[in-house]
Design goal:
about 350 residues, alpha+beta, Aminopeptidase, Elongation Factor Tu (Ef-tu), domain 3, 2 domains, 6-stranded antiparallel beta barrel, binds zinc ion
């Protein structure tokens, strides 16, 4: 396993649902503390500034370190946990999956309970079970047993899924590629620029609570006050059965992507064009993506003060917002190469040219 694969494995296997990012944050810290000066905003986003960067334009790289999950909402007297979602879950991907309840006494394994097919009548089989009717079973037979295990209402619940390298060894499967893939890109770009230098002041941010409304991006952009921003995200690969080209033309293994549109942001056009031109120069295949049903940290970042030229780069992932998403290593490597080259181009003159 090379360094990049190991980084992706560690980051995706770390736990951190919105508002409960401590575990993943301390892991990200172990990488960033070797690179630059660390600080935090007051909601927990981690900010790393390269120490010897000149007082040139400030470039913010942002990847969110939270992942979608749940929170314990209620413990029934029979010993089952009702839960609320943290982030956007599709009801159909939940039943039968393992989760980890993070309690003050340590992690407790559970499963999102599903009725066995033997007990479903024909009408029931056709119906989609809604989240509100689901429960987590930790194997308890009473509320007292649940409480004895340390579970309390408000406890965070994380999907359980191990990192795996698939039959095509360039494809990786795990939870949380959304957006540990962006966190990894931020870390590795910071490492490269620390070594090579850049004509700007580079600030890497691992934001929190993106999945519940871009909250850490809203606060960290105030702390950083950037002149330009690049948001690093997982994108939605549409190359699976049931998705038309029109819905998503983004394919796994066909390169990183640049977002031309999402629900909360239209990128700065000159910065977007610089991304396209840089990819062409370096012969990195670059896909374009339009997401009508989602947003990124860019939605908050580009509206900071009087506005910040911002663009979103993506690594396509299949099955995002589930327990098991899949990415392609070449897409990740392409994104990293493109990102490093882009950062090196962001000098005072270029950045000034993005506005006006
Ligand atoms: Zn995301």
């Amino acid at each position: 396993m090379d360094k990049t694969t190991e980084l992706l494995k560690k980051l995706t296997e770390a736990n951190g649902v919105p508002g409960h990012e401590a575990e993943v944050r301390s892991l990200v810290k172990t990488y960033l503390e070797k690179i630059g000066d660390l600080s935090q905003d007051n909601v927990g986003s981690l900010i790393c500034t390269l120490p010897d960067s000149p007082e040139a334009p400030k470039v913010m790289l942002a990847g969110h370190m939270d992942e979608i999950g749940f929170m314990v909402k209620h413990i029934t007297k029979e010993g089952f946990l009702r839960f609320l979602p943290l982030g956007g879950w599709f009801d159909q991907v939940l039943l039968g999956h393992r989760v980890l309840v993070q309690t003050h006494k340590g992690p407790v394994v559970g499963v999102i309970g599903a009725k066995p097919p033997h007990l479903l009548d024909p009408e029931e089989r056709k119906k989609v079970v809604e989240k509100k009717d689901m429960y987590i079973d930790i194997g308890a037979t009473s509320r007292e047993e649940v409480e004895a295990a340390g579970v309390r209402t408000g406890d965070p619940v994380v999907p359980q899924s191990d990192f795996a390298i698939l039959a095509n060894p360039k494809t990786y499967l795990c939870k949380a590629f959304d957006d540990r893939v962006g966190t990894a890109l931020m870390i590795q770009t910071m490492q490269a620029i620390k070594k090579d230098g850049s004509p700007n002041r580079l600030v890497g941010v691992a934001t929190v609570m993106e999945e519940v409304g871009l909250r850490g991006a809203t606060t960290s952009v105030d702390a950083v006050d950037p002149d330009v921003a690049i948001v690093l995200e997982s994108d939605i690969a549409g190359d699976v059965p049931g998705i038309t080209e029109e819905q998503s033309a983004v394919k796994l293994g066909k390169g990183p992507s640049v977002l031309l549109y999402d629900r909360r942001m239209i990128p700065n056009l000159k910065l977007r064009d610089l991304v396209l031109a840089t990819a062409e120069e370096l012969k990195i295949p670059l896909q374009t993506s339009l997401i009508e049903g989602g947003a990124t940290d860019g939605g908050a970042i580009h509206l900071h003060k009087t506005g910040v030229p911002t663009v979103v780069l993506g690594v396509p992932a299949r099955h995002i917002h589930s327990h098991s998403s899949i990415i392609h290593r070449e897409d990740y490597d392409g994104a990293l190469k493109l990102l490093i080259a882009l950062v090196k181009k962001l000098d005072a003159e270029t950045v000034a040219g993005f506005t006006g």
